[in-house]
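job 3f2a | input accepted
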Amino acid sequence: MEKYLQNNTNVNENNLNIDVSSSEDENELFFIDTLEQKPQRIRVIVPRHPTLISSEINCENILPLSERQPRANITNQTCSTPKSFNEAMSSSNEEDWNTEIKKELMNMERLNISGLDYQRTFAPTGRLSSLHTLISFATIHKYEFHQMDVQSAFLNTPLQEEICLEIPQGILANKETQLFQLNKALYGIKQASLAWYKHLTKWLITLGFQYSINYPCVFWRKGKSPIWIYVHVDDLAIFESNLENRKQEIKKDSYMKDLGKAHLLLGIKINHLSDGFSLNQEH
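job 3f2a | predicted structure (283 res):
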Protein backbone atom coordinates (compact mmCIF):
# COMPACT_ATOMS: atom_id res chain seq x y z
CA MET A 1 0.00 0.00 0.00
CA GLU A 2 1.28 3.45 -0.88
CA LYS A 3 0.95 6.46 1.38
CA TYR A 4 1.74 10.08 0.76
CA LEU A 5 2.62 12.25 3.76
CA GLN A 6 2.86 15.98 4.01
CA ASN A 7 5.48 17.74 6.08
CA ASN A 8 5.25 17.81 9.90
CA THR A 9 3.22 14.57 9.92
CA ASN A 10 3.69 11.46 12.08
CA VAL A 11 2.59 8.05 10.77
CA ASN A 12 2.24 4.92 12.92
CA GLU A 13 2.29 1.75 10.83
CA ASN A 14 2.90 -1.59 12.52
CA ASN A 15 4.04 0.27 15.69
CA LEU A 16 6.74 2.12 13.67
CA ASN A 17 6.83 5.94 13.93
CA ILE A 18 8.03 7.83 10.84
CA ASP A 19 8.92 11.49 11.34
CA VAL A 20 9.09 13.68 8.26
CA SER A 21 11.65 16.44 8.46
CA SER A 22 10.28 19.99 8.43
CA SER A 23 13.25 21.34 6.53
CA GLU A 24 11.90 20.12 3.23
CA ASP A 25 9.61 22.10 1.03
CA GLU A 26 5.95 22.04 2.20
CA ASN A 27 4.68 20.92 -1.20
CA GLU A 28 7.10 18.02 -1.50
CA LEU A 29 5.61 14.58 -0.98
CA PHE A 30 7.37 11.46 0.22
CA PHE A 31 6.74 7.95 -0.97
CA ILE A 32 6.66 5.19 1.63
CA ASP A 33 6.67 1.54 0.56
CA THR A 34 4.62 -1.05 2.33
CA LEU A 35 6.47 -2.31 5.37
CA GLU A 36 5.08 -5.86 5.12
CA GLN A 37 3.97 -7.65 2.01
CA LYS A 38 1.13 -10.17 2.13
CA PRO A 39 2.13 -13.74 1.26
CA GLN A 40 1.13 -14.94 -2.16
CA ARG A 41 -1.82 -17.30 -2.22
CA ILE A 42 -1.27 -20.65 -3.88
CA ARG A 43 -4.17 -22.65 -5.23
CA VAL A 44 -3.73 -26.39 -4.82
CA ILE A 45 -5.77 -28.78 -6.93
CA VAL A 46 -5.78 -32.43 -5.92
CA PRO A 47 -7.16 -35.27 -8.04
CA ARG A 48 -10.46 -36.80 -7.11
CA HIS A 49 -10.48 -40.06 -5.23
CA PRO A 50 -13.30 -42.60 -5.03
CA THR A 51 -15.26 -43.04 -1.81
CA LEU A 52 -15.37 -46.64 -0.66
CA ILE A 53 -18.66 -47.80 0.81
CA SER A 54 -18.63 -50.94 2.91
CA SER A 55 -21.45 -53.40 2.39
CA GLU A 56 -21.00 -55.06 5.77
CA ILE A 57 -24.01 -54.87 8.09
CA ASN A 58 -23.70 -54.97 11.86
CA CYS A 59 -26.22 -57.61 12.92
CA GLU A 60 -26.29 -56.22 16.47
CA ASN A 61 -28.31 -53.23 15.20
CA ILE A 62 -31.06 -55.42 13.70
CA LEU A 63 -33.91 -56.32 16.02
CA PRO A 64 -35.25 -59.89 15.91
CA LEU A 65 -38.69 -60.39 14.39
CA SER A 66 -40.23 -61.17 17.77
CA GLU A 67 -39.31 -57.70 19.09
CA ARG A 68 -40.41 -55.68 16.07
CA GLN A 69 -43.64 -53.73 16.09
CA PRO A 70 -46.25 -54.23 13.36
CA ARG A 71 -46.52 -51.73 10.54
CA ALA A 72 -48.65 -48.70 11.16
CA ASN A 73 -50.40 -47.86 7.89
CA ILE A 74 -52.52 -44.74 7.74
CA THR A 75 -54.43 -43.10 4.94
CA ASN A 76 -52.65 -40.38 3.02
CA GLN A 77 -54.87 -37.34 3.31
CA THR A 78 -52.59 -35.15 1.22
CA CYS A 79 -52.29 -37.23 -1.93
CA SER A 80 -53.54 -34.28 -4.01
CA THR A 81 -51.67 -31.36 -2.47
CA PRO A 82 -52.77 -27.95 -3.85
CA LYS A 83 -50.07 -25.86 -5.44
CA SER A 84 -51.48 -22.43 -4.52
CA PHE A 85 -53.72 -20.74 -1.95
CA ASN A 86 -56.57 -20.33 -4.42
CA GLU A 87 -56.39 -24.01 -5.33
CA ALA A 88 -56.51 -24.97 -1.64
CA MET A 89 -59.53 -22.75 -0.98
CA SER A 90 -61.40 -24.19 -3.97
CA SER A 91 -60.77 -27.83 -3.01
CA SER A 92 -63.16 -30.09 -1.10
CA ASN A 93 -60.91 -29.80 1.99
CA GLU A 94 -61.18 -26.03 2.17
CA GLU A 95 -61.89 -25.91 5.90
CA ASP A 96 -58.98 -28.22 6.75
CA TRP A 97 -56.53 -26.23 4.65
CA ASN A 98 -57.77 -22.96 6.13
CA THR A 99 -57.27 -24.29 9.66
CA GLU A 100 -53.76 -25.54 8.93
CA ILE A 101 -52.75 -22.27 7.27
CA LYS A 102 -53.87 -20.33 10.34
CA LYS A 103 -51.87 -22.63 12.60
CA GLU A 104 -48.77 -22.17 10.45
CA LEU A 105 -49.12 -18.39 10.50
CA MET A 106 -49.51 -18.41 14.29
CA ASN A 107 -46.35 -20.49 14.65
CA MET A 108 -44.40 -18.17 12.36
CA GLU A 109 -45.60 -15.15 14.33
CA ARG A 110 -44.68 -16.75 17.65
CA LEU A 111 -41.16 -17.74 16.51
CA ASN A 112 -40.51 -14.63 14.42
CA ILE A 113 -38.92 -16.87 11.81
CA SER A 114 -40.11 -18.62 8.71
CA GLY A 115 -39.10 -22.23 9.08
CA LEU A 116 -38.72 -24.99 11.63
CA ASP A 117 -38.57 -24.58 15.40
CA TYR A 118 -35.00 -25.72 16.04
CA GLN A 119 -35.15 -25.01 19.77
CA ARG A 120 -37.28 -28.11 20.25
CA THR A 121 -34.88 -30.35 18.38
CA PHE A 122 -31.73 -29.43 20.31
CA ALA A 123 -30.48 -32.13 22.67
CA PRO A 124 -27.94 -31.33 25.40
CA THR A 125 -24.53 -32.98 25.19
CA GLY A 126 -22.23 -33.76 28.09
CA ARG A 127 -19.45 -31.26 28.60
CA LEU A 128 -15.87 -32.41 28.77
CA SER A 129 -15.33 -30.33 31.91
CA SER A 130 -18.12 -32.27 33.63
CA LEU A 131 -16.40 -35.56 32.80
CA HIS A 132 -13.09 -34.29 34.19
CA THR A 133 -14.82 -33.18 37.39
CA LEU A 134 -16.48 -36.56 37.89
CA ILE A 135 -13.20 -38.40 37.28
CA SER A 136 -11.52 -36.23 39.92
CA PHE A 137 -14.43 -36.85 42.27
CA ALA A 138 -14.18 -40.60 41.67
CA THR A 139 -10.44 -40.51 42.39
CA ILE A 140 -10.97 -38.79 45.75
CA HIS A 141 -13.73 -41.19 46.86
CA LYS A 142 -12.14 -44.27 45.23
CA TYR A 143 -15.11 -44.97 42.94
CA GLU A 144 -15.07 -47.36 40.03
CA PHE A 145 -15.30 -45.91 36.53
CA HIS A 146 -17.27 -48.06 34.09
CA GLN A 147 -18.77 -47.41 30.67
CA MET A 148 -21.96 -48.51 28.91
CA ASP A 149 -23.02 -48.04 25.30
CA VAL A 150 -26.60 -47.95 24.02
CA GLN A 151 -27.00 -49.96 20.83
CA SER A 152 -29.07 -48.18 18.16
CA ALA A 153 -30.21 -45.56 20.66
CA PHE A 154 -32.24 -43.50 18.19
CA LEU A 155 -33.93 -46.55 16.65
CA ASN A 156 -35.24 -47.67 20.04
CA THR A 157 -36.67 -44.29 21.05
CA PRO A 158 -40.45 -43.75 20.95
CA LEU A 159 -41.75 -40.61 19.25
CA GLN A 160 -44.34 -38.20 20.59
CA GLU A 161 -44.91 -36.48 17.24
CA GLU A 162 -46.78 -38.02 14.35
CA ILE A 163 -44.28 -38.44 11.52
CA CYS A 164 -45.27 -40.11 8.26
CA LEU A 165 -43.09 -41.39 5.44
CA GLU A 166 -43.77 -42.16 1.84
CA ILE A 167 -43.73 -45.87 1.10
CA PRO A 168 -40.30 -46.82 -0.32
CA GLN A 169 -39.77 -48.88 -3.42
CA GLY A 170 -40.03 -52.64 -3.10
CA ILE A 171 -43.03 -52.68 -0.74
CA LEU A 172 -46.38 -53.77 -2.15
CA ALA A 173 -48.81 -51.05 -1.11
CA ASN A 174 -50.89 -48.30 -2.65
CA LYS A 175 -48.38 -45.46 -2.59
CA GLU A 176 -50.96 -42.88 -3.64
CA THR A 177 -53.31 -43.42 -0.70
CA GLN A 178 -51.09 -45.02 1.98
CA LEU A 179 -48.22 -43.76 4.14
CA PHE A 180 -45.99 -45.27 6.83
CA GLN A 181 -46.12 -43.80 10.32
CA LEU A 182 -42.99 -43.99 12.46
CA ASN A 183 -43.40 -45.80 15.77
CA LYS A 184 -39.88 -44.92 16.88
CA ALA A 185 -37.22 -42.41 15.94
CA LEU A 186 -35.05 -42.74 12.87
CA TYR A 187 -31.52 -41.53 12.19
CA GLY A 188 -31.74 -38.31 10.22
CA ILE A 189 -34.96 -36.81 11.59
CA LYS A 190 -34.54 -33.63 13.59
CA GLN A 191 -36.34 -34.95 16.67
CA ALA A 192 -34.20 -38.07 17.06
CA SER A 193 -31.49 -36.79 19.43
CA LEU A 194 -33.90 -34.86 21.65
CA ALA A 195 -36.36 -37.77 21.76
CA TRP A 196 -33.56 -40.09 22.92
CA TYR A 197 -32.43 -37.67 25.63
CA LYS A 198 -36.00 -37.32 26.93
CA HIS A 199 -36.48 -41.08 26.90
CA LEU A 200 -33.24 -41.72 28.82
CA THR A 201 -33.93 -38.90 31.29
CA LYS A 202 -37.42 -40.20 32.01
CA TRP A 203 -36.09 -43.69 32.68
CA LEU A 204 -33.31 -42.49 35.01
CA ILE A 205 -35.78 -40.34 36.96
CA THR A 206 -37.98 -43.40 37.55
CA LEU A 207 -34.90 -45.06 39.08
CA GLY A 208 -34.54 -42.19 41.54
CA PHE A 209 -31.90 -40.13 39.73
CA GLN A 210 -31.71 -36.36 39.66
CA TYR A 211 -30.03 -34.12 37.12
CA SER A 212 -28.59 -30.63 37.14
CA ILE A 213 -30.36 -27.79 35.35
CA ASN A 214 -27.05 -26.19 34.40
CA TYR A 215 -25.49 -29.55 33.50
CA PRO A 216 -28.39 -31.66 32.21
CA CYS A 217 -26.14 -34.57 31.20
CA VAL A 218 -24.96 -35.27 34.75
CA PHE A 219 -27.24 -37.55 36.79
CA TRP A 220 -26.82 -38.71 40.37
CA ARG A 221 -28.59 -40.68 43.06
CA LYS A 222 -27.72 -40.32 46.72
CA GLY A 223 -27.94 -42.97 49.41
CA LYS A 224 -25.70 -45.47 51.14
CA SER A 225 -23.89 -46.02 47.86
CA PRO A 226 -24.09 -42.82 45.73
CA ILE A 227 -23.88 -43.22 41.97
CA TRP A 228 -23.09 -40.66 39.28
CA ILE A 229 -23.76 -40.94 35.54
CA TYR A 230 -22.30 -38.81 32.77
CA VAL A 231 -24.22 -38.97 29.46
CA HIS A 232 -22.82 -38.13 26.04
CA VAL A 233 -25.50 -39.04 23.46
CA ASP A 234 -25.47 -42.87 23.70
CA ASP A 235 -22.33 -43.26 25.85
CA LEU A 236 -22.73 -43.53 29.62
CA ALA A 237 -19.89 -43.11 32.10
CA ILE A 238 -20.86 -44.50 35.51
CA PHE A 239 -19.10 -43.79 38.81
CA GLU A 240 -19.83 -45.78 41.97
CA SER A 241 -18.15 -47.99 44.55
CA ASN A 242 -20.05 -51.17 43.54
CA LEU A 243 -21.37 -51.03 40.00
CA GLU A 244 -22.42 -54.57 39.14
CA ASN A 245 -25.93 -54.38 40.64
CA ARG A 246 -26.43 -50.81 39.45
CA LYS A 247 -25.62 -51.62 35.83
CA GLN A 248 -28.12 -54.46 35.76
CA GLU A 249 -30.75 -52.05 37.02
CA ILE A 250 -30.03 -49.49 34.30
CA LYS A 251 -29.84 -52.07 31.49
CA LYS A 252 -33.47 -53.15 31.93
CA ASP A 253 -34.91 -50.30 29.85
CA SER A 254 -32.65 -49.95 26.81
CA TYR A 255 -30.48 -52.11 24.60
CA MET A 256 -27.35 -51.31 26.56
CA LYS A 257 -24.01 -53.01 26.19
CA ASP A 258 -21.80 -53.26 29.25
CA LEU A 259 -18.25 -52.30 28.29
CA GLY A 260 -16.83 -52.87 31.77
CA LYS A 261 -14.11 -50.54 32.96
CA ALA A 262 -13.87 -47.43 30.82
CA HIS A 263 -10.83 -47.46 28.52
CA LEU A 264 -11.80 -45.13 25.65
CA LEU A 265 -14.38 -42.35 25.93
CA LEU A 266 -14.75 -39.26 23.70
CA GLY A 267 -11.35 -39.92 22.16
CA ILE A 268 -9.68 -40.07 25.58
CA LYS A 269 -7.73 -43.15 26.60
CA ILE A 270 -8.29 -44.01 30.26
CA ASN A 271 -5.83 -46.02 32.34
CA HIS A 272 -6.96 -47.38 35.71
CA LEU A 273 -4.31 -47.03 38.41
CA SER A 274 -4.24 -48.15 42.02
CA ASP A 275 -4.63 -44.58 43.28
CA GLY A 276 -6.71 -43.05 40.48
CA PHE A 277 -6.81 -42.68 36.70
CA SER A 278 -4.55 -41.35 33.97
CA LEU A 279 -5.89 -39.75 30.79
CA ASN A 280 -4.12 -39.33 27.46
CA GLN A 281 -4.88 -38.91 23.77
CA GLU A 282 -1.80 -40.53 22.30
CA HIS A 283 -3.82 -42.69 19.92
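job 3f2a | The chain is about 20% helix and 25% strand.
job 3f2a | closed
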